[in-house]
């Protein structure tokens, strides 16, 4: 799950996390939703053995309310790695 520049949350799955975050932030092959909400920051990660499991979990998370998603982030035992491009980092 990523947090967009407008503080909205976007949930998706990928087999290459670092590459996907870079795609979202560069605009090349990023999701339509995140293209106008850059930069995005990785805030939540879960790891699954199969694509099928990951998609099932993605859909379940997407059905949750914003409050439930924020709680998931807060209570997660796994802290996501930080991937960003300093050229496009608008947080400074």
Describe this structure in words.
This protein has one domain. The protein has helices at 17-26, 32-35, 51-62, 66-75; strands spanning 2-3, 9-10, 41-42. 39% of the residues lie in helices and 7% in strands. It is globular and about 25 Å long. The protein starts with a strand and ends in a 17-residue tail after the last helix. Strands 2-1-3 form a three-stranded antiparallel β-sheet, with no helix packed on it. With 92 residues, it is mainly α. It is built from four helices and three strands.
Entry summary:
With 92 residues, the chain is mostly helical. It has one domain.
Strand coverage percent: 5-15%
Task: List low-confidence stretches.
Answer: 86-92
Q: Biggest sheet: strands side by side, in what order? A: 2-1-3
Radius of gyration: 13 Å
**How many structural domains are formed by the residues?**
1
How many DSSP helices?
4
The share of residues in helices is 25-40%
Gross morphology is globular
What is the chain-wise order of helices and strands?
A: EEHHEHH
Largest sheet at a glance? Answer: 3 strands, antiparallel
How many distinct beta strands?
3
Return the structural class. mainly alpha
Summarize model confidence as the mean pLDDT: 88
Q: How widely separated are the two ends?
A: 22 Å
